[in-house]
Design brief:
Two copies of one chain form a homodimer.
Chain A lengths: L1 H10 L4 E2 H12 L7 H13 L3 E6 L5 E5 L1 H12 L11 H11 L5 H32 L5 H37 L21
The first copy, chain A, binds a DNA duplex (28 and 28 nucleotides) through helix 1, helix 2 and helix 3.
DNA sequence: CGACACATGTAACACGTTACATGATTTG
DNA sequence: CAAATCATGTAACGTGTTACATGTGTCG
């Protein structure tokens, strides 16, 4: 639901047309989350279907504008007021992967962790470089407007904060695993997590 | 693709049936990401469609087992070897929301940030409490096996690390916003981010 | 007996995403 | 002229998710 609401928010500034929305969206989120143009149109269609936007005439150049409706504005207010649920957050693939790697025998957890760590550190460096460039470019050129520069900076910071936390967590996993290996739990029987049933028979 | 691979990983330990997979999945990820049972069956169907698992007979009690195929094992190896892409990470709703809140006029960014902060701190406390309970319960009762306890702990830690980073980022946003308000950029013209076109005409 | 956990499934939908088709306009 | 950008759209797919239907066994 992020793209839906993102586009809706952009439309709240005034009527826009599809291609323009993509441009403005990417100005704020940077190259991190490139937005396929086609998706703008599909999303606009669904927004219209749900009565959150309406077609709003066209340019002398043929640009097809959309405007947000009252219902759309209400939805938007609600979006801004309601926090993103961090209880029951979206499933994180890395967490699931590690949980499985730790559990399933025959997986080299250390290798998995280190491969991910290398990748994440690399990503972190990229972000830091991007940030330096953004900070250097802003006072001088500033072709884009200041508010979207700010947005882009905040998004970058979020990525950095999050990736740093990820790396720290990966290290944390390693130490926890080391501790665990020193004091292993008694080998459980097969299917110990599931209620022990009668031996299964092959068909 | 997380559930797909998660189930595949569980099946790699040996044939399982649907309901059992859900139980084992939740033993590892805890109550954080409750898994609708129906989804296990739909996912199993898709895994079978793609040749990653095959039906593997049934129990004397009628449990319908599935087993991972060689192709499935290959897919699984690949999953463990390949890091979760942290360049071009999944769109984060909170980041998008803040980027929009900062950009769109008439949004009380401070209110948005603080509402989210309260929510996240609350989530953090919940996680911490859960962790304390998990650590206390493990040495004594330990009804579940040690490895899935470990997995659950790691998942919890990840949630904690991530949420902490989120709170810190929110605070960081506030200070950045404060700095920005002190030294605001010159008011840009309308639609400054998009190429300035001729005045649009209403239809 | 009724409630509840166990167990298997299906139908339907939403959203995100990609690939493709098409055309106008601009620019090297 | 050719390539690139601007611009609008559609068809199709995949995963995740929910709601529902159905039946068995168990326990108070």
């Amino acid at each position: 639901m992020s793209i839906r609401h993102g586009l809706l928010a952009l439309l709240d500034q005034g009527p826009r047309y599809g291609y323009q929305l993509r441009t403005e969206f990417e100005a704020r989120t940077g190259a991190t989350w490139p937005l396929n143009v086609g998706q703008v149109y599909t999303t606009l269609g669904r927004l219209e279907r749900d009565g959150l936007v309406v077609p709003d005439g066209e340019d002398e150049e043929g640009h097809l504008f959309y405007a947000v409706t009252e219902k759309g504005r209400a939805e938007l207010r609600d979006w801004f007021e309601t926090p993103v649920p961090r209880t029951s957050p979206p499933r994180d693939e890395l967490a699931i992967k590690l949980a499985m790697a730790v559990t399933v025998p025959g997986v080299d957890v250390h290798a998995v962790v280190q491969a991910q760590r290398r990748h994440s550190v690399k990503a972190l460096q990229d972000y830091t470089r991007l940030k330096a460039r953004a900070l250097a470019g802003e006072p001088a050129g500033s072709a884009a407007d200041g508010r979207s520069d700010l947005a882009w900076l905040l998004v970058l910071d979020q990525l950095i904060f999050q990736t740093e936390a990820e790396v720290r967590w990966l290290d944390h996993c390693e130490t926890r695993l080391a501790n665990y290996r020193e004091r292993p739990v008694a080998e459980p029987g097969p299917a110990a997590t599931a209620p022990a049933r009668g031996r299964r028979t092959r068909a």
